[in-house]
Amino acid sequence: MARTDDERPGSRPNLAFLGPAGTYSHQAAHDKFAEMVHYHTRDTIADVFHSVGPSMPLALVPQENSIFGIVSETYDLLRSPNAGQTKWVRGAVTLPIQHCLLVRRGKTLQDIKKVLSHEQALGQCRQFLATHLPNAQLVGVPSTAAAAEVVSTRPDTADHAAICSKICVQLFAGLEILHEGIQNERHNYTRFYVLANHPSSPLPNSRDDERERHALIRLDVPRTPSATSRSASTTVTDLLATLHLPAARVDRRPSAQPDLFHSVYFVEVTDPERLETHHGISHAGKLNGAKPPWRERVLDAIARVTESGGRADLLGTW
User: Fold this and answer.
1) Distance CA 269, CA 283 (A)
2) Cys-Cys with 42: which of 35, 48, 54, 162 at CB 3.0–4.6 Å?
3) What is the pLDDT of residues 104-139, one digit of tens each?
4) Contact criterion met (CB below 8 Å) for 37 and 13
């Protein structure tokens, strides 16, 4: 059972996620950690981020959706000095967004008179609803999880259905999945960052032989030539080249500093050995201890950026 913060404290670490219970953030966290953590809901992404600390060592925040793009609020929080100082990215989770039709146990499509969900989810499932429940009344509620709760708990909702995540079956009594994957778009994924209050502590489900191969670096390009810069001006292209590490993605947000049209860049870099191994190239000769550990190589790259006149901060490795 994917319980939340009503559990008694125990040896399992606490993890914060964007609530309420039953959201896709909850689903992603549970898929990653199952019963290895205690789950705690938070009202906003900012609340999730700021809750990371000694009493809440883990958190999960949405980073990007494959259809709607990056989650700006998450990246804006990663601009803060706390990122890379008291909070670090320690993992990533990708969740396929699969809307499910949940009903009271034993009910069929013919029994359903109303379908409840968040308005966005109702719109994302309009093709299924038009085909299979053309006469059902569609009712918008504050969240997909709230829809499941209403169908589960109210005595007058026996002929209602909810569109929500499948984890709601574990959270709300008396429900079952009638149909899974009813959304219009089949290629809808959300990626999440796992945050931690320590830069190198292992995650609850990590393996001893698991090697770090990713890092998130925050780059700040100077607006004026630096005294230590080798050229008249430094560009983000210069800084990316200085890293000497493959950039898997680069995201840009306005700087939090009061500097007009100044940007900060978030660069995910990946161990090149991982990239080459993925393409079927053997690295037996390269893995004989010739290269330093991944984190050390990333820190060396950050030092090169600083020497070239830019600023780089390590926000996490995994």
Assistant:
1) 19
2) 48
3) 999 999 999 999 999 989 999 999 999 999 999 999
4) yes
